[in-house]
Each structure stands twice: as C-alpha cells, then as structure tokens.
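Hey, I'm writing a tutorial for new members on how sequence and structure tokens pair up, and I'd like a real worked example in the thread rather than a made-up one. If someone can provide the structure for the chain below, I'll link this post from the tutorial.
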Amino acid sequence: MAAPPAVSVMGMKKAIVTMAGAALLVAGCGGGGEATSAVESPSEAPASPGAQSPGAQSSGAQSSGAQSPGAQGRDVPEALRFKGETLAGEQFDGAALAGRPAVFWFWAPWCSKCRSEGPNVAKAAEKYGDEVSFVGIGGLEKDKGRLRDFVSRTGTGNLTHLDDRTGRLYSHFKVTSQSSFLFMAPDGKTSKDSGPLDEDELSRHVDELLG
C-alpha cells in the first residue's frame, strides 16, 4: 500500500518541473524583446547630451543666430558655418576665417563685370596682405576648366577661390547676382555691394572693416 503514494509524489514532482519550465518559456518569449532593448551595444547607445551625429555636424544645423567655437576658440558667425572646396581641390572650412575681416567676391567666368574688376580685386588683396582674407567664389558655371581659366586671365591667383558650380555657396550667402561682394567684420557683421568696384571703392569698404 506504500507504492501508490510514492508514484503520486513522483507525479507531482514531474508536474511541478513541467509547470516551471513552461513558465520560463513564456517569460522568455514574452519578455525577450524588453530584455534585449534594455541591453544596448556601444554603437546603439544614446548620445550624451550635447553630442551631435556626424550628419548634424556636417549640415551645420544650429539655432538661428547661435555661435559655435571656431578656430583657436573663436566664435563662428552663422555666415561662416560652411565647408567647400578650392579650385585646387583642397577642403576649405569657413570657420577658419572667424575673428578676422574677410571679403567674399562672387563671380562667374562669363561675367564681363567680373573680368573687368578682377585686377582691382587682386591689387586690393595684395595691398591688405594678411590683414584681410580675400576669398573668391566662382559659380554659375558647370565647367571647372572655365573657372580656372578665369582666375588665370584676371590675375587673381593670389586669392583663395572656391568651386561653387553647384551654387550652394551663392545660396548660403543669399547672393543672387554677380559680380557681388560681401564684406565681413571680425565680429561677424556683414555688408554687401554690387560690382564692378574699382580699387578705391574696394579700399573704402575694406578700411571700414578695419575700423
């Protein structure tokens, strides 16, 4: 008569084990997604406050009028938050101009006004030397060879010239015609004028930048 209770106890143990296994299986299916999402790999970990993704940095997305640290700790005005490429194929970062006066000259290779004022721009750039940064922005043309030919013909090889065949920089600076000039003071304030400008007119504008 002792055998039946033993069988009953064994049966109960098997039932308990079976129920425990079933409970673990249910927990694994139902909670698996939550457990996985709680453990993140380093590549999926959320960025710390203030960190930016590479895309956000390259697009320069910041609040309007805000400034960010530039070269040597200077603040970078909104207008200088751009990157481009020189006609020589080198990368150019507008932030490098922060804290110093700069003259942007917007030209196109087929523009007769631009060609006529080119020598004056070259003289002004030579006159002010390292005091003022002169940057040419050649656009409204698909042929890079014509941009280079313009620089050679106008004798403006002493300037840094940016390749703007896409028109991206024209849009960034809100320039709609050529020739055009944008004069930027060290504090980031800007003024514009349309060409052609002779050597005296250019000097007047630059002297105002220098105070």
